[in-house]
Prior knowledge:
By secondary structure, this protein is of the alpha/beta class.
Amino acid sequence: MVRSTTGKYGVDVALELSGSPSAFGTGAPQLRTGGVYVLIGGVFPAPPVAVQIEDVIRRVLTIRGVHNYLPDDLGTALAFLTENQRLPFASLIADWLHLAEADEAFRRAKDPAVFRIGIRNRR
């Protein structure tokens, strides 16, 4: 879909937010020459990923990790989600659990078939 939408060129920037090694492998090939791959979600131990050094060099790719952010950044992200409700963000959440069920949410989040589990503070 990315190639057909971009005239087979790929995207300028790709964001990988899950930290999943397989997601990394899926996103990197979508970059165009000179593209930037931003990795945000991989702050936990995971299997290593293969990176073709020749591909990074020939396509002049940039791979950047982002770890620290400020509370204001989360507010900006929430504003973006609120302003772009036409996008199917809700479909990314497999299920919603109460905060008291956090242990269950973390257990389920380890399932590769589950993209995200939402946490609510009220029933």
